[in-house]
Amino acid sequence: MWSDDDIKFMSAALDVAIRGKGKVSPNPLVGCVLVKDGQIIAEGWHDHLGGLHAEQMAIHDAETKGESPNGATAYVTLEPCNHFGRTPPCTEALMWAGVKSVIVAHTDPNPTVRGQGITVLQNAGISVKSGLLEGQAADQMRPFLHWCQYRKPIVTVKMAVDCNGSVDDRSKDAGRFTSQQCLDLVHQMRADSDAILVGVETVVRDNPSLLASRVETSKQPLRIVIDPNARIPEDCQVLNDGKETLVLQDDFRDLPNILNRLGDMEIQTLMVEGGPITVKHFLDEKLVDEFYLIQSTVQHQTPYDSGINSQILNDAGLTRADDQTWGEETVQYWSR
After folding, report:
1. Is there a catalytic annotation at residue 55?
2. Is residue 329 within 8 Å of residue 292, measured between CB atoms?
3. Most buried in the list 65, 123, 239, 326, measured by CB within 10 Å?
4. What is the dihedral of CA 66, 67, 69, 73, to 10 degrees?
5. Exposed (0-12), middle (13-18) or buried (19+): which is 86, by Cβ within 10 Å?
6. Distance, CA of 13 to CA of 137 (rounded, Å)
């Protein structure tokens, strides 16, 4: 059904969609290329909230280059929207531009779209096909699709341990024990997340900023501290650096409700960086979707055991999917 050129052009649309990563949530990553006479004449992506959608940017890109979108084929990674949100409908933009056909990777499960975009285009006489590289598009938009289905965020846990599985050396003040390269990757994970969650003990012990300060990013994640007994220090960084922090006095037994509330706030990706107690609560409730276990070659003098092993992760519904190297550390990636 799909030609090699079709696959090439949709792959290009997926490639440009990545340029919006970390800047468009709660909207999904979307890319679009316009093709005429077997050549890409323009490209667009959703770059930031309130900015042009991918189809609109591609049409603008064509006009800026002196290319007419009239008669072009649009390859777009997500079904064009047909409603007024932060921008006008993309269906109207495509019809106005005279696009003759549209090829869609993935339909939009959002109730405000859900097939209406394709139907409107077809009713206007535009040829529409869907399903090209659908799996790749689904992987790219996973947080958005998960949120549309479950109305709660994907939960990713990051935990760093020493060579023996200890998360902290109680013989000295709290401090980082992983490499600079590893830390850069962790900060990129923060930048790609909508929110970061820790328990209050992490704030008391480490006084972390929980910001993505080592990478370029247009936004910082919401910091969330679970503090059922109001123990958070008034002079801690997360309350005094001018960035947004949400302190919750919920008991850890309320984690499912907390995730539902975060979903209502349109938070689609939650990174848990808490200590062993916080992480164990998430695992016990089977609420973890991804787990990054970072192991250093450092050995703690007075270790504080993580309590994490393969059996516990398996019992939480996770499977070891990959092994990676981050700087000087080895990383086990577990996924649901």
Report:
1. yes
2. no
3. 326
4. -160
5. exposed
6. 10
Please tell me the predicted confidence (pLDDT) of residue 113: 61
- In angstroms, the CA 45 to CA 246 distance is 31
Match 């850069």 to its residue by tokens: 184
Angle at 147 between CA 312 and CA 50, to 5 degrees: 135
The candidate with the shortest Cα–Cα distance to 118, out of 84, 82, 85, is 82
Active site residue: 43, 55, 79, 329, which one?
55
Question: By three-state DSSP, how is residue 210 classified?
Answer: coil
Taking alpha carbons only, the member of 330, 62, 316, 11 closest to residue 185 is 330
Q: Among residues 234, 233, 153, which one has the least CA distance to residue 195?
A: 153
* pLDDT one-digit tens code per residue, 125-171: 999 999 999 999 999 999 999 999 999 999 999 999 999 999 988 88
What stretches of the chain show up as alpha helix (H) in DSSP?
4-17, 54-64, 90-97, 116-123, 134-140, 142-150, 180-191, 200-206, 237-240, 255-264, 276-284, 310-315
